[in-house]
Amino acid sequence: MANAALLEQIYTIVAQIPAGRVTTYGRVAKMTEGATPRMVGSAMRHLPDGHGLPWHRVINATRRVTDHGGAQRQRDKLRAEGVVFDSSERVPAALLWP
C-alpha cells in the first residue's frame, strides 16, 4: 500500500477524471511522485466508505476493466456515463484521459 502522501496524490488525480472518460492505473501512477500501477490499484480497492471518488474510471493498461468482485458494477457505472466497450470489452483509446 502507498504511503499517505502518495495516496493523497492518487486520490487527487482520480478525483479529476471527467465523467465519460477513463484512465489507467499506469497513467495515474506516472502523475505521482513514485506510485506504481499496483499501488494505484490497491488504493482503489481500499477506498473508505462514502469517499465519492470516481474509482470506476480507472482501468487497466489493455483498456479493459480488471477482473475483480466489482467488475460488473464498474462496467455498469461507466456505461451509465456513456462509456462504450468494443466486442473485446475494451474502452476506445479516444476516451482515455488525459
Structure description:
One of its GO terms (biological process) is DNA repair. Keywords: DNA damage, Methyltransferase, Transferase. Residues 8-83 form the Methylated-DNA-[protein]-cysteine S-methyltransferase DNA binding domain. This protein is mainly alpha-helical and 98 residues long. The longest helix is centred in the N-terminal third of the chain and has 12 residues, at 4-15. A two-stranded parallel sheet has the order 1-2. The two termini are 25 Å apart. The chain has helices spanning 4-15, 25-30, 37-45, 71-80, and strands spanning 23-24, 58-59. The chain has 4 helices and 2 strands; from the N terminus they run αβααβα. The chain has a single domain (4-95), classed as Orthogonal Bundle (Arc Repressor Mutant, subunit A), CATH 1.10.10.10.
Unreliable stretches: none
Mean pLDDT: 96
Can you tell me the CATH class?
Mainly Alpha
Q: How many independent structural domains?
A: 1
In CATH, the topology is named Arc Repressor Mutant, subunit A
CATH architecture: Orthogonal Bundle
Report strand order across the widest sheet. 1-2
**Alpha-carbon distance between the termini?**
25 Å
Molecular shape: globular
Write the layout of secondary structure elements.
Elements: H1 4-15, E1 23-24, H2 25-30, H3 37-45, E2 58-59, H4 71-80
Describe the structure concisely:
It comes from Franzmannia pantelleriensis. The chain is mainly α. It has a single domain, classed as Winged helix-like DNA-binding domain superfamily/Winged helix DNA-binding domain (Arc Repressor Mutant, subunit A), CATH 1.10.10.10.
